[in-house]
Design brief:
By secondary structure, the chain is an alpha/beta fold. The chain contains 22 helices and nine strands. A nine-stranded mixed β-sheet has the order 4-3-5-2-6-1-7-8-9, with helices on both faces. Helix 7 links the parallel strand 8 and strand 9. 30% of the residues are buried.
Length: 672
């Protein structure tokens, strides 16, 4: 189980190289108020001076400290396998200069100060960017610790006004990780119930399952008081325990008191003041406890960690694949993208595309709906006699006979009226063409959506493809409209009364005559230009009728036929009613024949002149207009972010694969 902490350290290094925090690794985060002794606790655990010390805010950026236990120099020399080839008892490395090894801890202190000032400046501001330090020593236990800036309330000097919020947010970003242990540091000479560290820890860890409290400065308590209640958990109980330590004072640091001496003095003070608790407090016990807690915590987190790494590996493989490989042969790449788009476009029309919509009809299915549902129902909803009144029909019959009274129903009136009705089929037919054209435009967007990564990768090529397809559709639209217009014009050009489905005129006349005794619909229809009375009345009644019909408004004036008002209306005669009914039935019969023909021929025309043409010529149009040597570089220019995103995804995938390999090296027997 001792091997678990080095494994986590190795994983941390792997993910640090890609600068990503996709995996939340187990670690110990040290939090506490400013000058509560956090850095001193870390130095005591390591046993060396390597952190900046002083009053005010000294730790101004996160320090991720990895402690690695190694054999002594003498043992390594005997084994003839020098750790990293370093001939020193203890040494350290920084991630930002990993090839440089530090054996002098004063140089480590200096490097920490230089790196801190590089990112935060010389003022008292803080930075989110962590500093990674790895210390190899035979005197440490394997640990991973994170030292954070101390909690402060009031900005001093040139600190930003929101320094308290910045520090708090930084601390929460670390301790909110459910895989981290919280080391809450509180000074013994303050009231534990006012501890900001314990309050923050309780906010993110209300059950206290990953919080360990450390009480510092046991030697600085007021005379007559002790920390017994705090250490025993009577003030605030902490599940993982409360450990008291004694740090070096500033006087000890100034007088260069060694940490080993400080540890001896600490043990003496504990034996003197807290003899019953001496073996469960102190820096050495704290280091062992942290080591034990971290190992158990890693063991608990490892299965979830392994699953997370595997899931992310699969995700990044998919992402990297979607970004495509760097271009080697531009000609082949351009042809491949054009062919893929054209094939996807045609497959969407045919209904064989890989990505089929489930939320709405699209492509060929929508065209079928337009032809048979939208267009078909629209035609069927047109009344063959809509807009034709008895008056219109009778007027047409009389106008067709000229000055001569008609013995039979004139054919000219039938043709005139039926053409007027057939003309009404043109508008819905042209609208059908427009709807199919709109759907062909929508398919461009549909194909772009499912080839998103490739087309996003080359935005100029995407624009060019859309422009070419749109131009082809725009070019074919007037041709198709013209053909549909001609279909209606063809029907108007020749009224074929010998059509097999057209009803026989004699049969219609006989049928109407046999039913003449039945009242006609809208029997109150009247015609204005007939004389008011039927023939057969006597001269007196006829004269009276004429007087009532043609007299001017003033009865005393002479009759003037040029300025008479319109004649009064009257009921139609039986013959007029019969002639109108014959014409109505003939119009209806012939209109239904033409409507059936138009309903069948318009979809065929649209498919031939628009849809099939685009399918057959799309790829050749795209190749002809885009596959040109002078356009290759322009078309295959990647978007600015794509290459960077591909590199980031590739690096992350390598890191995840390394992490997966590292985790898989752990045997189940090592977990217990």
């Amino acid at each position: 189980m001792e091997t678990l902490i080095p494994v986590i350290n190795k994983l941390q290094e792997i993910f640090n190289t890609v600068g990503a925090e996709v995996i939340q690794l187990p670690q110990i985060v040290v939090i506490g108020s400013q000058s509560s002794g956090k850095s001193s606790v870390l130095e005591s655990i390591v046993g060396r001076d390597f952190l900046p010390r002083g009053s005010g805010i000294v730790t101004r950026r996160p320090l991720i400290l990895q402690l690695v236990h190694v054999s002594t120099l003498e043992e390594r020399r005997r084994a003839a396998s020098g750790e990293s080839g370093v001939q020193a008892e203890e040494w350290a490395t920084f991630l930002h200069c990993k090839h440089k090894t530090f054996t002098d801890f004063s140089e480590i202190l200096q490097e920490v100060e230089i790196e801190t000032e590089r990112t935060t400046g010389t003022n008292k501001g803080i930075s989110q960017e962590p500093l990674y330090l790895k210390i190899y020593s035979p005197h440490v236990l394997n640990l991973t610790l994170v030292d954070l800036p101390g909690i402060t309330k009031v900005p001093v000097g040139d600190q930003p006004p929101d320094i308290e919020v910045q520090v708090r947010d930084m601390i929460l970003s670390y301790i909110s990780n459910p895989n981290c242990l919280i080391l809450a540091v509180t000074a013994a000479n303050t009231d534990m119930t006012t501890s900001e560290a314990l309050k923050l820890a309780r906010d993110v860890d209300p059950d206290g399952r990953r919080t360990l409290a450390v009480i510092t400065k046991l030697d600085l308590m007021d005379a007559g008081t002790d920390a017994m209640d705090m250490l025993m958990g009577r003030v605030i109980p902490v599940k993982l325990g409360i450990i008291g330590v004694v740090n070096r004072s500033q006087h000890d640091i100034n007088s260069s008191k060694s940490i080993s001496e400080s540890l001896r003095d600490e043990q003496a003070l504990l034996q003197k003041r807290y003899p019953s608790l001496a073996n469960r407090n102190g820096t050495r016990f704290l280091a062992k406890t942290l080591n034990r807690l971290l190992m158990h915590h890693i063991r608990d987190c490892l299965p979830e960690l392994k699953t997370r790494v595997n899931v992310l590996t699969a995700q990044y493989q998919s992402v990297l694949q979607s970004y495509g490989q760097p271009i080697e042969d531009k000609n082949a790449t351009l042809l491949q993208i054009i062919t893929k788009f054209a094939t996807e476009y045609c497959n969407t029309i045919e209904g064989t595309a890989r990505n089929i919509e489930t939320s709405e009809l699209c492509g060929g299915a929508r065209m079928c709906y337009i032809f048979h549902e939208t267009f078909g129902r629209t035609l069927e909803s047109i009344d063959p006699l809509a807009g034709l009144t008895m008056l219109d029909i009778l007027t047409a019959i009389r106008n067709a006979t000229g000055p001569r009274p008609a013995l039979f129903v004139p054919e000219v009136s039938f043709e005139l009226l039926v053409r007027r009705q057939i003309k009404r089929l043109e508008e819905p037919s042209l609208r059908c063409v427009e709807l199919v054209h709109e759907e062909l435009q929508r398919i461009i967007q549909h194909c772009s959506t499912y080839n998103t990564q490739e087309l996003l990768r080359f935005p100029k090529l995407h624009e060019a493809i859309v422009e070419v397809v749109t131009a082809v559709l725009r070019r074919r639209l007037p041709i198709t409209n013209e053909m549909v217009h001609n279909l209606v014009a063809i029907e108007l050009a020749y009224i074929n009364t010998k059509h097999p489905d057209f009803i026989d005129t004699a049969m219609v006349s006989a049928s109407v005559s046999s039913s003449k005794s039945e009242p006609l619909p809208d029997g109150a229809r009247r015609w204005k230009s007939e004389k008011a009375e039927e023939a057969g009345t006597d001269d007196r009644s006829r004269g009276a009728s004429q007087i009532s019909l043609y007299s001017s408004p003033s009865r005393s004036q002479a009759v003037n036929l040029l300025d008479t008002p319109m004649p009064a209306t009257r009921k139609l005669s039986q013959r007029e009613q019969r002639d109108c009914e014959v014409i109505r039935r003939l119009i209806k019969s012939y209109f239904l024949i033409v409507r059936k023909s138009i309903q069948d021929s318009v979809p065929k025309t649209v498919m031939h002149f628009l849809v099939n043409y685009v399918k057959d010529h799309l790829q050749s149009e795209l190749v002809g207009q885009l596959y040109k040597p002078q356009l290759l570089d322009t078309m295959l220019t990647e978007s600015e972010d794509m290459a960077q995103q591909r590199n980031e995804a590739a690096n992350m995938l390598k890191a995840l694969q390394k992490a997966s390999q590292t985790i898989s090296e752990i045997r189940e027997t090592q977990l217990w």
